[in-house]
Design brief:
alpha+beta; 12-stranded antiparallel beta sheet; single chain; 12 strands
């Protein structure tokens, strides 16, 4: 079991541009032996970063989940060098797992673009959608859970469910919950009967936010970017459920299909606190589209991730619009 997020996405070179993960991907926010997609995504980003020179910086990573990865075996990472110029580098990365019959099954496909750092002609970024307290005035998940138990009578069973489902984040990341957010008020949808201060808003106006930083020191640029992919993926697929007083058990299927990670600054340090805000944008025909944005303490937007996810009705349930 990996002890840090850097270990979780670490790779060992088997031969040029081919790697194997040091650890099997871990589970979070899903059932059975299906792994958390952020593990696969972070591993793929790490593989892409290994293949470029240090003066190239990741600015775009577009990917597709081809199938779930399993937690009982390591992943293989194959890097294809698509483009190398004085300014840009492009990599196509395939993640696969070896099956019991010896064949490799593709799990994930990534297209990563890198650029040499350039001076800005313009410098601007959108702020968060609302004003949030500084990290020192935001509670931990333990404090949030204790408050929900004492103020709303939340049962130990559901508190323990939240701890278990999101244990991986707790192992790798320090988090502080912005109390105005939906996630902080209904425990990411687990406490679905609790009304939030955003209930009067439409689902596309609702937001959740938290402060995050790595619990363990990230050293290299590849570790920073891999960790960024890992944390930005967290919870996006079920934001629409939590914002509509539902959780994973209410859906027939809920998981990420594809994503676009945009990185706006070349220097990223997730050893320091960053503010992350999540919202959902649209949902129809069994899919949803949501976004997570990240700012540093100076208010500069560091990254954005959009995701389209599957959201299926349980069998035998009719749609309500």
């Amino acid at each position: 079991m990996a002890a840090t997020v850097a270990e979780q996405v670490a790779l060992k070179e088997a031969k040029p541009d081919e790697y194997v993960s040091l650890h099997s991907p871990s589970k979070m926010g899903n059932a059975g032996i299906m792994a958390y997609g952020g593990c696969t995504m972070g591993t793929a980003v790490n593989g892409a970063c290994q293949s470029v020179q240090a003066h190239y910086y990741l600015y775009s990573a577009l990917g597709y989940y081809l199938g779930p990865s399993s937690t009982d075996r390591k992943v293989f990472c194959t890097v294809h060098r698509v483009r190398d110029t004085r300014t840009f580098a492009t990599r196509r990365v395939e993640i696969s797992q070896r099956q019991d019959d010896g064949t490799k099954r593709p799990c994930f496909l990534l297209l990563a673009d890198f650029q040499v750092k350039e001076p800005p002609m313009l410098r601007f970024s959108a702020p968060p959608s609302r004003q949030y307290p500084d990290v020192d005035n935001c509670p931990t998940w333990d404090s949030v859970r204790e408050a929900l138990v004492s103020e709303h009578g939340l049962t130990k069973r559901r508190v323990d469910a939240h701890k278990a489902v999101f244990d991986l984040m707790g192992r790798f990341w320090d988090q502080r919950q912005c109390p105005e957010g939906v996630f902080a008020q209904n425990l990411m949808g687990i406490a679905k009967e609790i009304r939030t201060i955003q209930d009067k808003l439409s689902i596309t106006e609702k937001v959740s936010a938290d402060w995050v930083r790595s619990k363990h020191t990230l050293v290299t640029k590849a570790e920073q970017l891999s960790a960024l992919a890992f944390v930005m993926d967290c919870a996006l697929s079920f934001v629409p459920l939590a914002y509509s007083h539902q959780f994973l058990e209410d859906a027939g299927a809920c998981s990420s299909l594809d994503f676009a990670l945009r990185v706006f600054l070349s220097e990223i340090d997730l050893n320091n606190w960053h503010l992350r805000e999540m919202k959902t944008i649209t949902g129809d025909e069994g899919r949803t589209y949501s976004e997570s944005r990240l700012w540093n303490r100076k208010g500069r937007m560091v990254a954005s991730m959009t995701q389209q996810s599957i959201l299926r009705l349980p069998k035998g349930v009719k749609a309500t619009l």
